[in-house]
């Protein structure tokens, strides 16, 4: 249910379910001048969003499928699987669902997306142009959810950048949908306990039911390699080479905080954790280290390194597939803005400057277009 208004944490059937740009930046390895072309990919046209597509057998009621697809194409942060999983949690696809709440908590939650009247006044509308404007009009409500969630994702991104919030972009947006922006701001992120804390995880639990395998949509080349960020979501910044008298051992890829990071090939997590004094908030140029970092070991003694994440999605020793989401872009460690510092090492581990190679050249040889 949408609690985007400041009336407090309204709840609906979901509660019952639970209860039952040209910029100059500096990264840890040198100067980053953001510019260049948007990242490419394989020679095929890349997918248009970074959200999760629907799996072929996703249990979306047929009468709502086209509306879920429309709602999942409104912004890069969300795909149709995220919309479907959230509706599943909110109402179980019941367009007539009602959950009674006192006026002090925003009043009744209504319809397939469990909008309260105050939030519907701001985000609702006759979006299917059938002459009816109501949270009980499922088509209207699905698109309204999409528009509101996109706005919440953008709001969360801005507040993470301003260091008012910490955490994963979508988790922050989902928590705000549940309990309101003020609730999340007061907590400095997803609340530490309670239903608002549980809400993002409950949505993510349902993603497996709706989301397509290799849900990130990154194309994997014939050699088993893929780009670490989805084509169209980043710009190439500072490249491999000497910077200020030292080796910049990778490439910097500029992307928004919360952009998914993908395993460049199948392999094993060699290590995953914080390499700076702190990683629970954005870093600075005075903070040494790579922030939240992952090293993956691949066949042929190749190691790939991923630095400055806002959140990790893997643990040491875990096996990962090519294109699997392993983390999300952030600005932890020695960094002045969100980006992925990506390295490739041969004859490794250990990974060091002595065995680092140009990631752009490596990826091109693998048939990719970074």
Automatic annotation (TrEMBL):
Gene Ontology molecular-function annotations: metalloendopeptidase activity
Entries under InterPro entries matching the protein: Cell_wall_metabolism_enzyme (IPR050570), Dup_hybrid_motif (IPR011055), Lysozyme-like_dom_sf (IPR023346), M23ase_b-sheet_dom (IPR016047)
Keyword Membrane: yes
TM region positions: 12-38
Pfam families: Peptidase_M23
Protein keywords: Membrane, Transmembrane, Transmembrane helix
M23ase beta-sheet core domain segment(s): 247-347
Top-level taxon: Bacteria
Protein name as it appears in the record: Peptidase family M23
């Amino acid at each position: 249910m949408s609690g985007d208004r400041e009336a407090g944490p309204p709840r609906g059937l979901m509660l019952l379910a639970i209860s039952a740009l040209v910029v100059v930046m500096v990264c840890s390895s040198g100067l980053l001048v953001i510019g260049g072309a948007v990242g490419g990919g394989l020679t095929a046209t890349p997918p248009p969003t970074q959200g999760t597509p629907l799996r072929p057998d996703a249990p979306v009621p047929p009468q709502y499928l086209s509306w879920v697809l429309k709602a999942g194409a409104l912004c890069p942060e969300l795909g149709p699987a995220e919309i479907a999983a959230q509706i599943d949690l909110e109402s179980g696809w019941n367009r007539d669902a009602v959950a009674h709440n006192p006026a002090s908590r925003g009043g009744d939650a209504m319809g397939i997306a469990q909008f309260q009247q105050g939030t519907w006044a701001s985000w609702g509308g006759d979006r299917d142009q059938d002459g009816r404007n109501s949270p009980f009009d499922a088509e209207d409500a699905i698109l309204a959810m999409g528009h509101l969630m996109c706005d919440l994702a953008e709001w969360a991104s801005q507040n993470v950048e301003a260091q008012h919030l910490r955490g994963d972009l979508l988790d922050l947006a989902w928590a705000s949908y549940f309990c309101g922006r003020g609730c999340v701001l007061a907590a400095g992120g997803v609340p530490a306990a309670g239903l608002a804390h549980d809400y993002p995880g409950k949505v993510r639990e349902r993603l497996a039911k709706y989301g397509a395998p290799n849900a990130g949509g990154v194309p994997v080349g014939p050699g088993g390699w893929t780009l670490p960020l989805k084509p169209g979501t980043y710009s190439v910044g500072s490249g491999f080479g000497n910077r200020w008298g030292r080796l910049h051992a990778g490439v910097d890829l500029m992307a928004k905080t919360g952009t998914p990071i993908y395993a460049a090939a199948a392999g094993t997590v060699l290590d995953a954790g914080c390499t700076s004094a702190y990683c629970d908030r954005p870093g600075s140029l005075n903070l040494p280290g790579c922030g939240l970092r992952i090293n993956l070991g691949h066949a042929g003694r190749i190691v790939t390194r991923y630095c400055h994440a806002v959140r990790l999605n893997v643990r040491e020793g875990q096996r990962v597939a090519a294109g699997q989401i392993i983390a999300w872009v952030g600005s932890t460690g020695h960094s002045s803005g969100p980006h992925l510092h990506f390295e490739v090492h041969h004859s490794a581990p250990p990974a060091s400057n002595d065995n680092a190679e140009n990631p752009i050249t490596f990826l091109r040889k693998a048939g990719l277009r970074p």
